[in-house]
Amino acid sequence: QVQLVESGGGSVQPGGSLRLSCAASGIIFRLYAMGWYRQAPGKQRELVAQITSRGNTNYADSVKGRFTISRDNAKNTAYLQMRSLKPQDTAVYYCNSERSGSNVYWGQGTQVTVSS
Hints:
The relative contact order is 0.32. It is built from no helices and eleven strands. 0% of the residues lie in helices and 51% in strands. It is mostly beta strands.
C-alpha cells in the first residue's frame, strides 16, 4: 500500500519560513519524481515544485528564489523549504509521486497559512 504523509505545515507570519516533509512508503522512492502542489480556496491545484529521480528541479515562477525542493532517498522523504512566505502562499500543500508507467500517488495535504 502506497502512502505519502505530509508534515510541517502551520501558521506563520509574512516573511517567515516553513519546511514541509513528505514521507513515502510502498514505492521504490528513488525511482519516482516527487512534487509539491498547492490548492488555495476557490482555486485549482497548481504545481509548486518538482524534483526528478535524478535530482533535477523545476519551480513555479511565483516561488522561484524562495522555495527549495529536495529529496533524501535514504529516508524516502521529500522536502519543501519555504522562505520569505507571503499571504498568497496560503494553501493546502500536497505531495505527489510520479513515474512513467505507474500510478500517480497523492498525500492527504497539509495546511500552510501565512498571515499577520
